[in-house]
Design a protein that fits this description.
Herpes Virus-1, Apoptosis, Tumor Necrosis Factor Receptor Associated Protein 2, Chain A, ZFTRAF1, 35% helix, zinc ion binding, Znf_RING, alpha+beta, zinc, RING-type domain-containing protein
């Protein structure tokens, strides 16, 4: 009897001890233990997370997965232009990079990478040629058909081999304004009426084209005549950034004094005709004026223009010079601002550089003959 009671008491004590031990285990540990795969040492992910990740990977192609890695961190697009990277490796296309640096210059602020906020400039940002080559090998679709080819070949396909590319009639020089897909050109040529027209019927078209060619010929002849004049000076100028003394200071550029035709001159360049807050608009232009710094006693009639110089820091910049006329005297020593024939993208490239470098031409008019 006593032995039976003792065994029952021992069983009760053991059951109480095991219950206490179970209560001392935290809930978080129980959860972790339940996730352990006892066949290995790894902890399994929840099933729903695995399914979501796998489904996402299956829905995206390799090009779609790599696109955000190689895209510009500002416009978020794969660029066909040059790609620059900040000191920490963040990519920016050429257009966005120059626009960002030009914006900060107009606001008199230091430009910074939009991702890591490190300082960026033309000096410490380099081109990433490896990424440019990778992007050029990524596939893209033709703008006119469904053909897919590497980006480095798409321009040739769209301009030369695509059957849907826009094509003009072979008799467009005579006035035919037909435009259609390339594969329809043969059928159009069989029905085009311009080969059957008489010379009298084509005179109007020929006259219009002759006027255009005559204008180009006159421009070239004028440039040649100007170069033959003895009183002509060419100066390689460098414009440095400056600010006005207004309450809201405006950025402009100015050269140091330079000598031409026995007089002292300087050139000023302004942005958007000195309008306020040019950094708030994406459309930008540059205008320049010629300033006479010497005292003169008689009127000086000049022709002048600005062109790209041999020391330009923008070798790809190209624009057609515009010849201007002005009569300088004691009261008129500054010309009006003359707009440079450049695009907004080229304007941003110039503004993002440390200085502007051009070649400035001044010609004295010594006769009444037209040049």
């Amino acid at each position: 009897m006593a032995e039976a009671l003792q065994s029952s008491l021992n069983n009760m004590l053991e059951s109480n001890d095991s219950a206490k031990a179970e209560k001392t285990v935290p809930d978080g540990v129980e959860t972790a233990i339940s996730l352990v795969n006892f066949t290995g040492n790894d902890i399994e992910e929840p099933p729903f997370k695995k399914l979501r990740t796998n489904a996402h990977d299956r829905s995206l192609s390799f090009e779609d997965r790599i696109r955000p890695i190689l895209s510009c961190c500002i416009c978020l697009d794969l660029s066909t232009l040059s790609l620059f990277q900040c000191p920490n490796g963040h990519l920016m296309c050429s257009a966005c990079f120059h626009h960002l640096v030009a914006d900060c210059m107009l606001k008199d602020q230091e430009s910074a990478c939009p991702n890591c906020r490190c300082k960026i400039s033309r000096r410490n940002c380099t081109r990433n040629l490896a990424v440019e080559k990778i992007i050029s090998e990524l596939p893209t679709t033709c703008a006119y058909c469904t053909h897919t080819c590497p980006r480095c070949e798409i321009k040739y396909h769209e301009s030369e081999t695509c059957p849907e590319r826009p094509t003009v009639c072979e008799y467009s020089l005579l006035g035919c304004d037909w435009i259609g897909p390339s594969h329809c050109l043969t059928s159009h040529m069989t029905s085009c009426e311009y080969p059957k027209k008489t010379g009298q019927q084509l005179l109007d078209t020929i006259r219009i084209r002759k006027q255009k060619y005559d204008a180009e010929k006159t421009y070239l002849e004028t440039a040649l005549d100007l170069l033959l004049i003895h009183e002509i000076d060419a100066n390689d100028i460098s414009l440095t950034p400056m600010h006005t003394d207004d309450f809201s200071a405006k950025l402009y550029f100015e050269t140091s004094h330079f000598k031409a035709l026995e007089c002292e001159w300087k050139v000023r360049v302004c942005i958007n005709d000195h309008t306020s807050h040019p950094h708030t608009t994406s459309t930008r232009w540059l205008s320049y004026q010629l300033v006479l710094e010497s005292n003169i006693s008689e009127t000086i009639k000049l022709k002048f223009f600005i062109s790209k110089g041999p020391y330009s820091n923008l070798p790809a910049l190209k624009f057609q010079p515009i010849i201007s006329h002005f009569e300088f005297n004691e009261n008129n020593t500054e010309t009006e601002y003359i707009k440079l024939p450049i695009s907004s993208l080229e304007c941003n490239q110039i503004l993002s550089s440390s200085s502007m470098k051009f070649r400035f031409w001044i010609i004295r008019e010594i006769s009444t003959a037209s040049l």
